[in-house]
Structures
1.
Amino acid sequence: MSQVRVGLLGIGTVGSGVWRVLQRNADEIARRAGRPIEIVAVADRNVERAQEIVGREAIERGVVVTAEAAAVVARPDVEIVVELIGGTSAAKALVKAAIAAGKHVVTANKALLAEHGGEIFAAAQERGVMVGFEAAVAGGIPIIKALREGLAANRIEWVAGIINGTTNYILTQMQMRGIPFAEALREAQALGYAEADPTLDVEGIDAAHKATLLASLAFGVPIQFERAYVEGISAVEARDIAYADALGYRVKLLAVARRRADGFELRVHPTLIPKEHLLANVNGAMNAVVVKGDAVGQTLYYGAGAGSEPTASAVIADLVEVARLMNATPSQRVPHLAFQPGELVTLPVLPIGACRTSFYLRLQVADEVGVLAQLARVLADEGVSIAAVIQKEDGVAEKGIAELVLLTHESEERRVRSAIARIEQQVWVRGRWAALRVEHLQ
């Protein structure tokens, strides 16, 4: 069979990995796809760097390197467009132009799909082309394929994952070395794990983009990023991580999508996870996702969530799938969001106040007899019961003040928040609060 011709938009970290792996493993990939896959055109704003990556031999062979991404999309010989430029404005226009021209698309752009995926998938469905996005979630981990195909027999109950390597690296350093967030962030930036502006990572937005896609694949619902609850790690203190450790937990930025009778939870936030759970032991910049299905139980997917060649692995997996199925009728292909387009259901995303978790609470109080009893009474009035308490006087700067750390039993979040609001009004409260959710993932 003839080769599959690809236009590559962006040859930065991931794009260069795609180029290298395709050249290095060309024969193996062709054996899997049933035909050779070859990049015939590359677009990048830095043409000189792109030419260096592509190499003189490939350019002499006819590979075109240009600064004009739209020109690559418009080439009549390009059958698949790989979008790796990022962002949502230019990328959306290019992806939609490719679809309109009848070209298949492969992308690693989770922000684009989380914010505009419904529109893009609808356009692709109408035009009869495929959009592959394995690399958009958890880098080289094949979680999209697992949800779309491997777990198709299951009613997915929940998905929970560590799906941002930057925050996991930061929290791991805080855990292992007791350093503050700001220092761990600086180290992550120096090592290239964090951007100069780390907001998308440390405030949980990147993880929420990915969680939104996982929820749609798991539950067969439209993409609803704007309804996700998002909380980052910038307010997590080293002492909270130390207290969590003493109580038998690790702190991770956790993405959770949980099906309930009245809708589903879609949330990203720092979370205490029991030390014995597999997710609690995912360290450094690694990612992991746990999926709970009614038939299979819990399954774990672990690996590199970012990086040049791990992410390229997922991009090329999509290229292989498209190459295999590009001549098949659309009805024979796996639906973009795992469920047939007409079978998506509208389930409400539950507000964070309706979610049920246990809580870790830390507060400073007057070191007086009866304070703990008063605190417990306020919590009980709101239907929140205490599971464990740590009280420390040492390490508190001001005399006459004690630091209390509580673990609650599971309860509705609005009840916990109501109790916190009442406790903040008490005369015996001193200093700042910390409140983190606890997930046992059972």
Note: The chain has three domains: 4-141+308-342, 143-304, 356-438.
2.
Amino acid sequence: MTGSPLEPGTFGAQLFEAVPELERLAQIEVQIVCNLDSSDLGPAHWAELAIRIASSWGKWDGCVVVHGTDTMAFTAGALAFALSGLDRPVILTGAQRPLSALRTDARRNLADAVELATLDLPEVGICFDGLLLRGCRAIKSNTRSYRAFSSPGVEPLALLGTDIEIKGHVRRAVGPFRCDAVFDPRIDVIYLTPGLQESWIAARLQQPELQGVILVAFGAGTLPDSGLVSEIGAAVARGVEVVVVTQWGGQTDLSLYRNSRALRDAGVVPGGQMRISAAVPKLMHALAAYPNRETRRAYLMQDVAGERA
């Protein structure tokens, strides 16, 4: 990013001049997939990134995706679901201050990410401020700190200090590498708040093209005792997939309270420990990749890349 206000600037031509240590860490090929503010990125860009990565899978030891921070966690989740059977790292990184700025964190983050991409870390991860986080569990948690990302409920995959300490919970592939870069964007995210008008939510659930809903509920998965449950049940009966996640993190448990059991009985899918940045791309991927509803719901309940458990 350059200028005021910040906007995308040149990248590839100046990369090695600005961060010369990269060429000492690895032999690097640079591809420009797009040059956008990350708030402009969406499912089509996720698919293009996954396809680009897969098309060069046998050529290199790892991949680094340089990405804006605002939607980096969504892209990391999307790549974790689109790319299965990983046997090498896919590392996303970026910066809170542009590469051209004084006191930038871009140089360190990029050098760290490139070194991680040469190691035995077969996951999609986010490298930021000396941490490697599981991509499908990461959230942007601070807009003003160099430690912009966290992964509530799961420890970092690696710590980068004077040495790189790789933790024991790095996941390993259980099948061959596969790219399934498809996403159906016809979903809605409904974030519950006290006093939210039931009729407004009902209208959103009745959108004719709606295929899926992420319901961001209270606590472990509760909602007000009202007619909203019947509206949700009617949407599920029409074929809309409804996934419930919690606003505050932790495990969604639809058996704990009466006001959550109503959702369970309505046929919604509990989201485990998924946060919105994982639930959105996973639901989009499920809708596009699994036309059979039984198979789709089984996929949504499966812990695919460490996003649920």
Note: The chain is about 30% helix and 15% strand.
3.
Amino acid sequence: MDPRLEKLNQTWKELTEQASRLSRAVAQIQELERQLAERRARAEETGAIYRREQEDVDKLEQGGLRAFFLSLTGDKEEQLSQERREALAAKCQYDQALSDLEYLERRLRELGDQQEELKQVEQRLEALSQAKARLLKELGGETGKQLMELDRRQAELEHQLREVREALFAGKRAETCLSQVLDSLDSAEGWGVWDMLGGGLISTAIKHGHLDDAQDGLRQVQRALSDFRTELADVGDLQVPDISIGSFATFADYFFDGIFVDWYVQSNIHDAQNGVSEVHTKVLNVLHTLEGAEDSLDLELEGLKARRSALLDSVRS
């Protein structure tokens, strides 16, 4: 190959990769902005709920007519415990929404900085493409034009393949996190059944240990799904939803241990299993689609490289 063309090809490939990063950043910023709007609405919603629940706690603690009547019936402490549990659950949801919001804002800043750095790439790539076209025409006439078209298509395929593989990586991480949450929920369900049969404080503690694992795992799931959605932004229109579990009435189970409370917790665990399983299935379906796209792109890229090699051989001979 002509050394001038070889040098142009190397520079052109580097600039093409940078241009791909630019288009990727633009698409991901748009997706992150959509997610940011969702999380802001969630933060406002959970913040309002938390403030309302905390106000109920404050009113009972400070006294007043309602507190007075509840004290007469002997229900004040039970009602106060209930209000505190609800306030704590609301605060956990609010704190998580704020944490998600901070995470998305940080990612947006990072992508914004990257986009700023790559603004000039497209202009440089256009100038280089024109120079390459002139050289190819000089060297090979019609063959040179064909080679340039093959190079352009090869760069497109390599970019698409890279994006699909990055989406696959993010999706597999989300799938792993979801599987771990399902394992924790299955364990919690098993110990919950034992708890209802009279397992006592030990089985209650073990059950809630698994529920805590599920809650912690869901925080990782939420971030993993956010990353997966972002990676999918410039791959296709595939989407996956957010999920949350709720409080599972943990404090009610500890301090008012009884069959009705346990059934309430079991019902919540069952609902969570269904919700997480549904999202897990959707993620697996998206991964299957991406794996098919990866195979197709690999096949097309190999065929294109073979055509390009044959074309270069014809130029050399």
Note: The chain has a mean pLDDT of 77.
4.
Amino acid sequence: MRTRADIECWLTDMDGVLVHENRPIPGAAELLAQWRDQATPFLVLTNNPIFTPRDLSARLARSGLDVPEERIWTSALATADFLRSQLPGGTAFVIGESGLTTALHEAGYVMTETQPDYVVVGETRQYNFEAITKAIRFINDGARFIITNPDATGPTPSGVVPATGSFAALITRATGKEPYVVGKPNPMMFRSALNRIGAHSETTGMIGDRMDTDVVAGIEAGLHTVLVLTGISDQTEIERYPFRPDEVVDSVADLLAPEPLESEMPEGV
């Protein structure tokens, strides 16, 4: 059985793993420093397509975590990478923020409201009736429907707000067309991340705090999976699913310690 000792590269989720409400999770800074000191290839992944890697690098720096922008992989970047592989130099009608539009521009895509090849929907706080109506009409006219991530809601200091998945459901209801989802839990996002750092699934680990995205996508991509309990998952949440991560640890601080004994592995692994 593959163990943590076999892992040469790491992918890690951001919120709930490295930071929580903009505060660093104990052990995160030390783990990042360990990877840098040992020249371990890694990427920080997020399903949030709103911000560019530069924005996110600055946000993490304010939390005391040193993550260069080239070490950040977002669902927007994965979406742009996917579209470039499918139809180089294509066109898209986009509902989203700078993280998404910048990624698509850099992938060689043209933003248009005239017969786009794709309708691409990402996270934004500026959804409006006119844009959604245009998206529906373009899809009905033959544009292919892509969304960056499936999250139905997103957190804010005042409570949850509707997110990409909710607005995608509205468009699906109006068009009868289901979108192709690029971000987690689609293992496509992990495969594009592996390509970004020249890693192989057999020697790469994924650290996450969600069973329904991080762990299941990691398993499907053939990665060594580590679930941390600093986010939304606890033992009760783990028991809800028919699959198991390779490891369950309290936090990333535990990844600085020697590999756990077999007796300490989660039941069923």
Note: The chain has two domains: 4-47+184-264, 77-181.
